[in-house]
DNA sequence: GTTAGCACTCAGGGAAAGCGAGTGCTAAAC
DNA sequence: GTTTAGCACTCGCTTTCCCTGAGTGCTAAC
């Protein structure tokens, strides 16, 4: 038995109708939506074939048909019409991203909320460097005899600073020495190596200075580690409650717990494709076995990359979600391209 | 009719039993829990009195009794036994707060999650200054001819920095001039005044410098505004789904939306008392009319103050929540007292 | 290959019945 | 006056049963 064009057409109608109503779709309804060209009896024959081929399922004998994961997959791969965003939708995205680009974390969490509100499903957002970061430059600003501000400049122009307190007094003249030492020995190296280098210079400088030094390096290590660790922000878990498949509080609770407490297990594809759709059992995590995830990637500067994902029931409006999500990803890429949050790395390096 | 000791005792049992089981409490159960000193018939008479006095309600004729908000209030004010935290609970709190004290925001959001997990209800956390903040000191670190790092030191030793790009080249020798200007004209003032001062010096310095100056001041304004604005973090909304009163998805959704989208309306008492309990209709927001909120405050340094709140059904285990919450608040206060995140303000000022 | 017709299936909804926890009242006991 | 046993009554909840109707699968005719 082969998959004729008409069968595909019917599958498409079933998916779209089921997505809309969340109710199994009957032969009559399909015949109606196909313009009455064929009768419901014909449709029934076709439906039986589609079920046998594994594209449709039947909740029980006397109910309509529901797409199987395989059916959704075919729909997504071949049948789905690529939607374009309307002008007002594009405007909505831009509006949502019209935020002060302060820290990356904030942008990401704001983006998460916005995406979720935009697609009406829970969403998650991440950003991670493609290679490990390193300190580009150190600076120390004396505050008083016992404390100073450590300024650490990372790649991509990210700057962080913190107040340090040396327990022992340090001469102001010593600071340039320390800064020199920091910049000559502790720049350009990955976090793991910094502590080794610290050990190497341990004996060569007086204790008060070393204390400050190690505090600064420790701070830098923290920053690098934090920059390397990808932070995952989830938003809009509450959207689940609007869906009929999650009216059951236990089910909703389970997935929400997953979204908030085990974010790390959310799918984070490494490959570079612009968009990925995981349907039901295609998901690795058990908790996502009967949900679908749509993931788009966006660029942050040259070598950082982020993901936006949307989690929903397998009965998801893939066409709309895909369109909106990729619109969002594009907007983010554009925004990071033009904005000053992460200026281009200096060429002279 | 007066409120005898025995009536109070019965009310206490009703509250505690109802909190435990979420089911209306019957006369027999009460008699049993009071050691069989009186019969259920006697209890019934007392229950009728308590209902008439407004401390109890009856969902329907043939059901047991349920505390009214007034009943809970009496319980909280007079009847509730102040619980002490067990050693393991104290340890659990300390464990949860054993985090790197990086930025205030992170500490707060981590604390929110921890509190929520600890009491099994949604929680929220805030921090706000008691008076408006001001910049204590500026510093500019040249990076190359066109950009520099602005370091802004606020009260309480909070330091923030950002990379600025002047569109026009600036001589390195000019930076100390600029820093002087910044420190002499733009420190100690509230955010609102900074822009006025910027106008005053506008004509007196060359454009490239002024550009950098205004960027720096703008950055400082943002920081001050951000520091003044109290950020509210909510966590653990999903805990609601475990409660029988929120098995209804719509109800849960409504409260969750409130918790995530209209946080600002959560109760934030101004008065200094260490703990506040709002029961059902005592809440101002409609969305909280049949929930209760328990709020504790903690100190951050000398003149910042934070709140932790817990939101739950009126049928809340007030004794335990109150004990755990105040334990948490104490732990936070202690932590901020000893930690270096916000060192004491220098006395010489 | 398509269609009309028809018997069959089965979830969902509503009515009816039974159950049981709990009440309120009365009258007797303390 | 307070407490208690006894008893009739109430009423939400659960179960059962029946009915309805949407939808199917099959067969036979087109």
Q: Could you explain how this protein is built, in words?
A:
2 copies of one chain form a homodimer. The first copy, chain A, is of the alpha+beta class. Chain A has 3 domains: 75 residues, Arc Repressor Mutant, subunit A, CATH 1.10.10; 139 residues, Beta-Lactamase; 94 residues, 2-Layer Sandwich (Enolase-like, domain 1), CATH 3.30.390. Chain A is 44% helix and 18% strand. In chain A, strand 4 and strand 5 form a beta hairpin. In chain A, helix 1 packs across helix 4. The radius of gyration of chain A is 27 Å and the shape is elongated. Chain A starts with a helix and ends in an 11-residue tail after the last helix. The interface between A and B is large, with 37 and 36 residues. The first copy, chain A, binds a DNA duplex (30 and 30 nucleotides) through helix 3.
Output the CATH topology of the largest domain in chain A. Answer: Beta-Lactamase
The greatest interface here is: A-B, 37 and 36 residues
The CATH top-level class label of the largest domain in chain A: Alpha Beta
Count of helical stretches of chain A: 11
User: What characterizes the major β-sheet of chain A?
Assistant: 5 strands, antiparallel
Distance from first to last alpha carbon of chain A = 64 Å
Portion in helices of chain A: 40-55%
Q: What share of the residues of chain A does DSSP label as strand, in percent?
A: 15-25%
Mean pLDDT of chain A: 88
Low-confidence parts of chain A, pLDDT < 50 over ≥5 residues?
340-349
- Order of strands, main sheet of chain A, comes to 7-3-10-9-8
Counting helices, strands and paired strands, the structural category of chain A is: alpha+beta
């Amino acid at each position: 038995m082969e998959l004729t064009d008409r069968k595909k057409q019917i599958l498409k109608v079933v998916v779209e109708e089921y997505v809309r109503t969340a109710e199994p779709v009957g032969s009559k309804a399909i015949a109606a939506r196909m313009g009455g060209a064929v009768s419901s009896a014909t449709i029934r024959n076709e439906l039986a074939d589609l079920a046998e081929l594994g594209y449709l399922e039947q909740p029980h004998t006397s109910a309509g048909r529901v797409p199987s994961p395989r059916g959704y997959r075919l729909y997504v791969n071949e049948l789905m019409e690529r939607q374009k965003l309307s002008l007002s939708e594009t405007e909505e995205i831009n509006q949502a991203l019209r935020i002060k680009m302060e820290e990356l974390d904030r942008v990401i969490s704001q983006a998460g909320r916005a995406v979720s509100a935009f697609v009406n499903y829970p969403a998650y957002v991440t950003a991670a460097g493609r290679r490990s970061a390193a300190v580009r430059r150190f600076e120390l600003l004396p505050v008083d005899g016992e404390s100073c501000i450590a300024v650490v400049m990372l790649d991509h122009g990210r700057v962080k600073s913190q107040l340090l307190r040396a327990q022992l007094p340090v001469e102001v003249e010593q600071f340039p020495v320390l800064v020199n030492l920091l910049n000559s020995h502790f720049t350009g190296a990955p976090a793991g190596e910094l502590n080794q280098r610290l050990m190497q210079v341990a004996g060569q400088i007086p204790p008060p200075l070393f204390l400050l030094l190690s505090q600064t390096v420790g701070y830098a290590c923290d920053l690098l580690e934090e920059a390397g660790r990808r932070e995952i922000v989830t938003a809009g878990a509450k959207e689940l409650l609007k869906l009929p498949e999650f009216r059951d509080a236990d089910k909703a609770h389970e997935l929400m717990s997953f979204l908030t407490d085990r974010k790390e297990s959310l799918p984070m594809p490494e490959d570079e494709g612009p968009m990925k759709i995981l349907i039901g059992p295609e998901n690795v995590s058990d908790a996502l076995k009967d949900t679908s995830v749509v993931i788009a990637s966006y660029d942050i500067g040259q070598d950082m990359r982020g993901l936006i994902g949307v989690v929903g029931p397998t009965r998801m409006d893939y066409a709309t979600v895909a369109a909106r999500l990729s619109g969002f990803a594009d907007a983010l890429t554009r925004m990071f391209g033009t904005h000053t949050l992460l200026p281009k790395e200096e060429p002279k390096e």
